[in-house]
Structures are given as C-alpha cells and as structure tokens.
C-alpha cells in the first residue's frame, strides 16, 4: 500500500468520526447541517487516479449512509462529486501547472479556491438534498436546506483550509 492511500483512508476515518459524532447533531435553524466530509473529495490532486477517487468517495458515502440512515444518498452524491472534481479542477488550473497539483488556498489563491469549493459543494448539496426530498412538494424547505448547508459547509471548508499548511 502506498503512503498516499493510507493517508486517504486515515482522512476517511477522521471525516467519518467528525461527521457522525459531532456534525450530524448540528442543525442550524432546522435547515443547515455542516457536511465537511465533501472536503475529502476536494483534496484529490490533479494526477490522482480517477477510478480510485470515485471508489474511495463511494465507500466514504456508504459508511456515512450506514451511520445516518440514508439509503445511498450520500454515496451517490459523493460519487458524483468525485466524478466531476477533476473536470472542475481543470477549469481553474493552467495547462502548465504540475501534474501533482493539490488544490488548496495556498496553491490556487483565495478567489479561485473559493469558487472551486463553492461550485463542487453546491453540486454535492443539491444532489444530496434532492435525493433526500425526492420531490419538490415543499420546495422552500428543500431550497433552504440546500442553501443553508451549502453556505455553512463552504465557510467551514475554507476555514479548515486556511489553517492547513
């Protein structure tokens, strides 16, 4: 096993524990829940094998689904986010950037990194809450859940990345 794979599995364990033990119990105004485990997908470098990132994201989602009583919703949303992550990352990088480029605020700058985080986190939140609602009957609650969780998650991810080295 490579060091990178062991580090990613360690990150999966940490994100699972933080989400299940702490963040799943936080519901701001009954609409916003921090979903920081999507940060796991945002950290995949440019040259990371896409099949491995999709599989790791699926398993993280599956583990979180088993603890959260959501039947495959998180697994699907994380897998979709991991699938489009390399394409979104390429939008914000130059062709001459190195292949082992890891997205972070220090590497990309605040504006590029923030839009990268906002876009992928919105895709994740939209997919997750659309699957959870599975209808647009109460569309205002659905929209508030998406926007509230999206904003809270983005703020926490940018804050975590700003203190990372």
Number of DSSP helices?
7
Structural class: mainly alpha
Main beta sheet: strand number and arrangement? Answer: none
Hey, roughly how much beta strand do the residues contain? Answer: under 5%
Strand runs, count: 0
Question: What oligomeric state best describes the polypeptide chains here?
Answer: single chain
pLDDT below 50 for ≥5 consecutive residues: which ranges? none
User: Ends: how far apart?
Assistant: 25 Å
Could you explain how this protein is built, in words?
- This protein is mostly helical and 165 residues long.
- 69% of the residues lie in helices and 0% in strands.
Secondary structure layout plus pairing:
Layout lengths: L2 H19 L17 H4 L7 H19 L4 H19 L13 H4 L1 H24 L5 H25 L2
Helix pairs in contact: 1-3, 3-4, 4-6, 6-7
């Amino acid at each position: 096993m490579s060091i990178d794979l062991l580090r990613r599995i360690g990150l999966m364990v940490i994100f699972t524990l933080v989400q299940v033990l702490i963040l799943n119990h936080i519901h701001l105004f009954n609409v916003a829940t921090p979903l920081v485990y999507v940060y796991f997908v945002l950290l995949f470098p440019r040259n990371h094998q896409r099949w491995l990132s999709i599989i790791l994201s699926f398993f993280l989602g599956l583990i979180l689904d088993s603890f959260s009583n959501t039947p495959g919703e998180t697994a699907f949303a994380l897998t979709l986010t991991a699938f489009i992550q390399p394409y979104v990352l390429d939008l914000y990088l130059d062709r001459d950037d190195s292949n082992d480029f890891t997205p972070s605020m220090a590497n990309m700058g605040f504006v590029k990194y923030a839009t990268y985080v906002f876009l992928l986190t919105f895709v994740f939140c939209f997919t997750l809450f659309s699957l959870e609602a599975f209808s647009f009957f109460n569309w205002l609650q659905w929209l508030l859940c998406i926007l509230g969780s999206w904003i809270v998650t983005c703020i926490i991810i940018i804050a975590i990345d700003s203190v990372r080295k």
